[in-house]
Amino acid sequence: MRGLTQFIADIRGARVRELEEKRINKEMANIRKRFKDGNLDGYQKKKYVAKVIFTYILGYKVDVGHMEAVNLISSSKYSEKQIGYLAVTLLMHENSDFLRLVVNSIRKDLNDNNEIHNCLALHAIANVGSQEMAEALSEDVHRLLISPTSENFVRKKAALTLLRLYRKHPEVIPAQEWALRIVSIMDDPDLGVVLSVASLILALAQDHPEAYSIAYQKAVDRLNRVPIPWLQIKLLRLLQIYPPSDDPTLQVMLQEVLQTIMNNCNEPSRNVQHNNAQHAVLFEAINLAIHLDGNSPLVNTAAVLLARFISSKETNVRYLGLDTMAHLAARTDNLEAIKTHQGTIILSLRDKDISVRRRALDLLYSMCDVDNSELIVGELLRYLKVADYGLREEMVLKIAILTEKYASTYKWYVDTILELLSAAGDHVGEEVWYRVVQIVTNTEDLQAYAAKVVFEYLKSPSSHESLVKVGGYILGEYGHLIANEPGYSPIEQFQVLHAKSQFCMAPTRALLLSTYIKWVNVFPEIKPQLVNVFERYRHVLDVDLQQRACEFYALAMRPEEDEMLQNVCEEIPPFPPRESALINRLNKKHADSEDKRPWAHSNGTLERQPSKVIRKPGTIDTNGHGSNSNGDISQEIASSLAGLDLTSSPLAIQSPSSLPDGSAALAAKGIPRLSAGPNIDRWFDKLLYTPEGVLYEDVQIQIGIKSKYQGPVGQVAVYVGNKMSAPLTSFTTALHTEEGEALTASFIKIAPSMLAPRTQIQQIVQVECKKVFRKPPILVVSFIAGAHQAIAVRLPIVITKFLEGVKLGPADFFERWKLIGGPPREAQSIFPIALDATGHIDLAKQRQVVAGHGFQILEGIDPNPSNLVGAGIVHTAVDGKVGCLLRLEPNREAKLSRVTIRSTSEDVASEVQKLVQKPLAADPSAPADKRTL
Fold this sequence. Notes:
Elements: H1 2-13, H2 17-37, H3 42-57, H4 66-73, H5 78-91, H6 99-110, H7 115-128, H8 131-146, H9 152-168, H10 179-184, H11 191-207, H12 214-225, H13 229-241, H14 248-264, H15 272-292, H16 297-309, H17 315-331, H18 336-339, H19 342-347, H20 354-367, H21 373-384, H22 389-405, H23 410-424, H24 430-442, H25 444-458, H26 465-478, H27 490-501, H28 506-522, H29 527-537, H30 543-556, H31 564-568, H32 581-588, H33 631-638, E1 657-658, H34 663-668, E2 675-676, H35 678-687, E3 692-697, E4 701-710, E5 713-722, E6 729-736, E7 743-747, E8 760-769, E9 778-785, E10 787-794, E11 803-805, H36 810-820, E12 826-832, H37 843-852, E13 856-857, E14 868-876, E15 880-891, E16 896-903, H38 906-920
Antiparallel strand pairs: 1-2, 3-4, 4-5, 5-8, 6-9, 7-8, 9-10, 11-14, 12-16, 13-14, 14-15, 15-16
Helix pairs in contact: 1-2, 1-3, 2-3, 3-4, 3-5, 4-5, 5-7, 6-7, 6-8, 7-9, 8-9, 9-11, 11-13, 12-13, 12-14, 13-15, 14-15, 14-16, 15-17, 16-17, 17-20, 21-22, 21-23, 22-23, 22-32, 23-25, 24-26, 25-26, 26-27, 26-28, 27-28, 28-29, 28-30, 29-30
């Protein structure tokens, strides 16, 4: 485009601005004339629009070329389309009417098979980012991201475009619906794609942690496999969003990853960029180690490394070292490792960089405790007098909080806080002196000493207005406590305080008038001087001062025997208990941040507290129980779980369908709808009383179960087979337990990310029954086979799996039966019974079901040979052993059966009754027949 080249050369050659404007005006007039002709080809449109763009970039207003830019986007030539998109992103704001004209063209380019056109369209969407564009095109961008036919660089741009749209218009993006499909891309072999998607998930997971909880497992797996610095940083940050996992497998893997990162840091490189990457990963690893357990050995190692960083010659390294050490100090119970470097931290208050000084202040605040509070507060007070003005307000708040929190004596608190008020001047917020007044009012032993000390401070030649306010309040309420001591007489108190009033603002002088009316009541000897003040203030221009003076004058002039003055001027009662406003004010100063990690707003702003592990909904807790404390049992169980033949299924292949019950609650937690159907329900029911079999099967995948239980613990082997001739990629298995406090279930290891064609893998689930539970865990298997798919099925882990049969004689059985008694520890149900092929009651199946649920069938107990009697004990880790007795009475004529469960636990009785009845009934969904047996 020689014309464009010449135009740019002319502009650059203009010696003065007038010549430049003249050349631009001439060119704009020519362009308007050309555009009006309407007979321009694509090349000419491109050339003139390029000139318009260059003019706009120079800072001149342009009012031409918008429609031509819209037309260029529809061009099939790359150079013309590129100029059109560039003009749209530069010349049009996000609410421009012209943008509505390009939405269809952008959608066409997104759906095009040309990856270059895809990228141009993604650039335009990300740069403009209007709400209308997000609503119209977000689905198309998501499709490009998840499509297996998209080029890797297109998928990277699609992920970043979605991130841009979500940050601007989060309400438009259905983040929860897309969760499983987006998370599955973390298994992509292209690391650039994974890095872009990790950025997207990091943003989405902060707002929708439940839906993206499956990303936790994938992040740990990726960290364990791929040591790439910038990806590691994002994954480590992602893990900090969630409470620490209770899965022992993930815990061990994370510990190994963090230990490796910290060990690698001991070998510094001469390459500056390598060191930067290494330090960035290390600091995030330390933050994660603190997040997982603030008192672990890893954190002690981190404290040693941080001590080296806070003494570094590089400002950035010192800053990050202090910032991370402040996070550590706020979360750990043991501050000794940090206190060792207290001198270095105090010296950092005088660092040449204000950011480092601010982080040193945060760290000193976080590491302060009873032992070093006086030293740290003293240092902060000394530094306050020379500190930057930008730091002083925050320093005042922190000194006031530390003084109140760690005050060992009343004397130290009063001395320190009044010195703070005297030194801080204009940087003392209203909350500080309000808090002083609250504490002095509520602490009787402190009142006389506070009055005496504040009086001494007011005698100095210059006292800040905040100190005058505190003095006015305290002397007005408690000045009478020191009035009889030499040097503190009423007239001296009045003279010292009133001398400061002429330098104060109207609100402070109003407060002093309230002090004087109090003195009229307790110091009648100085009443003339006080009344004189009221008289003079009756004529001031300030309405509030004038009104107060008139009212106080009227009160003071009432007869001495009148009790109104005494009633009005009674001592203010103690304040009700309340949260310190100082901490709230400090937190607000640091609350505006997009980083929503649990600790992100706490560095130097919240009180130091020990690290706490918060239960994550749906996760597993095996601490102190389960396989860790029953290693020998687990090994014995595991030896019986080897192999399961799932090559064929006794039932027809079942296509998954949606189960409406509870689906909304599951979807809210990021769990797909439960797969259901006649065969799936039948398989599940059979596995309630058998140790192994098929749990789910379709044309692509087959899931089988083999289990063994002993006492309150057990292991379930889940076998997943790929029936297709193509691999299943992004393969993931996850467990969701709704009653985490009653049942724990976790995988021993993470599943591989790919399942090869016609192969089977085994996943061992460790389970422990702590209390009686009602809802079985949900197994979610997700994978990509052409499209993303997720299968959610109930695992046959129920309370009767922990039932162990016991032998009882007739006398013992009936003695216990009568001892337990009837309701509420009895559960009974009458239901239609299943029949065999001949139409008779299938007694053999009844015995199989009862025995399969764990009951010991007792022979010769019931006089009717058709009746079944059983006994067993339910093992729980927390509630102990629970006895359970069963009586099953079939009726041949009525084709009904009655099952009665009596247990020492009401919950066990009702739950076992439901579980035993289900595989026995002819139709579990049919209503129970009420005919009498």
